[in-house]
Design a protein that fits this description.
By secondary structure, the protein is of the alpha+beta class. The chain has 30 helices and 21 strands. It binds adenosine-5'-triphosphate. Pfam families: IQ (PF00612), Myosin_head (PF00063).
């Protein structure tokens, strides 16, 4: 049995199918080869080793839809075709991407042919580690990944030999601010829960509510989450991943320093008619300087004044309160972000072995979905730009699949035009005149403001139909994305875009006496400085780069990601969040429909609709529409292709552009399919009514044999006519006829039995009579013998 759920895609059929399957506890559904996973918010027992074994090596569609089926097909394809594979898992926050990624990784760990369990274990252990540092509680998800990740697992001869993780856009603002009901990254709370009083004293730590960077969201606890236990798991993972003691110690010191920095406060002092920020207390600074092995004075200076250099001289400009608070947060963000990237690099060093050469890879992309909030800012523009680019990739894939299918089926293709979302990508992109490009230009121009950026966007794009200005003079612009029209507010765009690690903070950390910490920042600094070969001297010269902006570096990593993925064979998993309350097994149509749009499912329909979205295999087509041949028999020498042609042509020549007959399937437009269904339905219903009348007539006339054949024909009709509407009419008729037929048969049986009984009774009576006669004759004979005369029968015998 094959489990391709939708042969024809349309918005409502997808929604209805998902809903009815979800209601039956079936959370996975295929639409074509795309797996849709609707979050059940309740663990089903469907991920055990028995399921791994069940799905291992099975082609897609042979077993019910499942994440393991995708894992199995991609793994088998990678080995068989020696081709890299990628699973693109997308969906909005809380839809189930991270869980799906973990399940796929577990599946791969279970089926791979590696004799080395350590590397597999290390790869799996990297997950809780990154989760502690990169996940946090948000109002949408208690364990929300605040970064995108691309995990490549490398295989040789079917065995795992290593893995590599790339991270995208860690949410920096969370380190210093959290919305109500939200938390900072898990690791802070886990550390404070698990460290003993003695250890806490060593780092000057207290409880979570004492820290400004941890107490802004309210409750520090998450129901059902054991922070202390997670910290134990985290340290165990670090041990398995060979993190040295000193490295682990430095991590705790950095985390503690971030918390101390957050508690630094400032006083405002008047100086020469200007406000100047002055440190409120020394205690936190002393702890940070101690833990990070930094000069206390340099740290104070970095928090209270800006350093500029001119002709070898250094000038210090004091910060006002806002600038000082920004500087404080910048140090905290720089420390945490750099540590996070270093952790990823460090994990990669351990699990990404040299054996990677000549290996094939199976990658999983777990990336934030399309976002449309009440207030959309720079982060949403980047995320939606990434989604727009991924959608382009997805469309191209679907388009390629379509093209492949059409050419395999020898369908004429040239009339079908596919529109893609490239114009929107160009509008947002970092290409000349793209919104992000304008932003980058402005970011390198000291006098620029958010408004000047907006004006330039309006100037360049007001004629573009994918761009819109607000009616009022609000600081906003609209972009028409594939998933809808989104309003962006440009407030803080420039500042957010420039929010790469500040060079003064990098310099400060490079000076640390803690080798691990200073190396972390030196590596980063070296990467920023590009070395170019000077043409005149032939020597390498150090070139100070153009300020790297968030948009530019994000765009660069996005393009490299797309480039890597385009060399892989992709599979798509679309995760859907069925309700906003995280309620188990609750399906809300509006919520799901929105996501079908955001995950690009409806876009797929659009692409398919431009061609021939309905495809039906010949035998199925003939079975379904045979009645349109109007009684004309199928000759034994008639091939299915010809039969389909006769059926299709029955609708008249004016519909010839509505369908094409391929090598094994009939391709149709949706409207033409409806037409065929309507025509076939009418014929079938009329035939059903005729047959039902016949059944009734035969029943009345007691024509048993004819009745039986009419019921058989009705039954066959039901089996053959699979369209639901007709099925119901005929089925009702047949149920009635069958009931009548049963009654009729019972009566016949009853009559027959009664007849038999009568007959047997008669026989019995006759037999008894015979015996009586014989007994009488015997008696008579004996009496006569005694008297010396013969009986009448003996007399008869003598005569013969
Ligand atoms: N297959 C599943 N079975 C049972 N529960 C699930 C499944 N997938 C997800 N969940 C539940 O949904 C929650 C959110 O899932 P997950 O963290 O994977 O979402 P996400 O899409 O990665 O969100 P974010 O983008 O915020 O990281 C999980 O903590 C879990 O409770």
């Amino acid at each position: 049995m094959f489990y391709y759920i939708f042969s024809d895609l349309n918005e409502h059929s997808i929604l209805d199918n998902l809903k009815s399957r979800y209601g039956r506890g079936l959370i996975y559904t295929y639409t074509g080869s795309i797996l849709v996973a609707v979050n059940p918010y309740k663990m089903f027992n469907i991920y055990g080793l028995d399921m791994v074994k069940r799905y291992e090596g099975k082609p897609l569609g042979e077993l019910p839809p499942h994440l393991f089926a995708i894992g199995s097909v991609s793994y088998t394809k990678m080995i068989k075709d020696n081709e890299n594979q990628v699973l693109i898992i997308s969906g909005e926050s809380g839809a189930g991407k991270t869980e799906s990624t973990k399940l796929v990784m577990q599946y791969l760990a279970a089926v791979n042919r590696s004799g080395n369990n350590l590397i597999t274990e290390q790869i799996l252990e990297a997950n809780p580690l990154l989760e502690s540092f990169g996940n946090a509680k948000t109002i949408r998800n208690d364990n929300s990944s605040r970064f995108g990740k691309y995990i490549e697992v490398f295989f040789k001869n079917g065995a795992i030999v290593g893995a590599k993780t790339a991270e995208y856009l860690l949410e920096k603002s969370r380190i210093v601010t959290q919305a109500p009901e939200e938390r900072n990254y898990h690791v802070f709370y886990e550390m404070l829960e698990e460290l003993s009083d003695e250890q806490k004293a060593k780092y000057g730590l207290q409880t979570a509510p004492k820290y400004f960077y941890l107490n802004q969201g309210g409750s520090a606890l998450i129901r059902g989450r054991d922070d202390a236990d997670n910290y134990r798991k985290l340290t165990a993972a670090m041990d398995i991943l060979n993190f040295e003691r000193q490295e682990q110690e430095t991590i705790v010191k950095i985390l503690a320093s971030v918390l101390h920095i957050g508690n630094v406060y400032f006083k405002v002092v008047q100086e020469n008619n200007h406000d100047r920020a002055e440190l409120g207390s020394d205690a936190e600074i002393k702890w940070v300087a101690h833990l990070l092995d930094l000069s206390e004075d340099w740290l104070k200076q970095a928090l209270t004044s800006k350093v500029t250099e001119a002709r070898g001289d250094r000038f210090y400009t004091p910060y006002n309160l806002d600038q000082a608070l920004d500087a404080r947060d910048a140090v905290a963000k720089a420390l945490y972000c750099r540590m996070f990237s270093w952790l990823v690099e460090r994990i990669n060093m351990i699990i990404c072995r040299a054996e990677r050469e000549k290996s094939t890879s199976l990658a999983v992309l777990d990336i934030f979905g399309f976002e449309d909030f009440h207030f959309n800012s720079f982060e949403q523009l980047c995320i939606n730009y990434a989604n727009e680019t991924l959608q382009f990739f997805f469309n191209q894939h679907i388009f390629r699949l379509e093209q492949k299918e059409y050419s395999k089926e020898k369908i004429r293709w040239e009339h079908i035009e596919f529109k893609d979302n490239q114009p929107t990508i160009d509008l947002v992109a970092t290409k000349p005149a793209g919104i992000l490009h304008i932003l980058d230009d402005e970011s390198n121009f000291p006098q620029a403001t958010d408004n000047s950026f907006l004006e330039k966007c309006h100037f360049h794009h007001s004629g573009n139909e994918l761009y819109d200005k607000p009616r009022m003079s609000d600081p906003e612009f609209y972009v028409v994305h594939y998933a809808g029209k989104i309003k962006y507010n440009v407030q803080h765009f420039l500042e957010k875009n420039k929010d790469t690690l500040r060079s003064d903070v990098i310099e400060l950390m490079c000076e640390s006496k803690n080798q691990i910490l200073s190396q972390m920042f030196k590596d980063h600094r070296d990467r920023l400085i590009t070395k170019t070969l000077s043409k005149t001297t032939g020597r390498y010269v150090t070139v100070k780069p153009r300020t790297t902006t968030v948009a530019a570096s994000f765009n660069e990593s996005l393009l490299s990601l797309i480039d890597t993925m385009s060399r892989c064979n992709p599979f798509f998993v679309r995760c859907i969040k069925p309700n906003a309350q995280k309620a188990p097994m609750t399906f809300e149509d509006i919520v799901v429909l929105d996501q079908l749009r955001y995950t690009g499912m409806l876009e797929t329909i659009r692409i398919r609709k431009m061609g021939y979205p309905v495809r039906i295999k010949f035998p199925h087509f003939i079975e379904r529409y045979r009645c349109l041949m109007k009684g004309e028999p199928i000759r034994s020498n008639q091939v299915p292709w010809d039969v389909c042609k006769v059926i299709l042509q029955s609708q008249g020549p004016e519909f010839k552009d509505e369908y094409q007959i391929g090598a094994t399937k009939v391709f149709m437009k949706e409207a033409f399919e409806s037409r065929l269904d309507t025509a076939a339905g009418a014929i079938k219903r009329a035939a059903a009514v005729r047959l039902q009348t016949m059944v009734r007539t035969f029943l009345v006339r007691n024509r048993h044999q004819k009745l039986r054949s009419a019921v058989t024909r009705l039954q066959r009709m039901v089996r053959m006519w699979k369209t639901r509407r007709d099925f119901r009419t005929v089925r009702n008729g047949i149920v009635l006829a069958q009931a009548q037929f049963r009654m009729f048969s019972q009566r016949r049986r009853y009559l027959k039995t009664r007849e038999n009984l009568k007959h047997r009774l008669e026989e019995h009576r006759l037999h008894r009579r015979k015996q009586e006669v014989q007994a009488k004759m015997e008696k008579e004979r004996r009496g006569n013998m005694a008297m010396g005369c013969v009986t009448s029968s003996e007399c008869n015998a003598a005569m013969i």
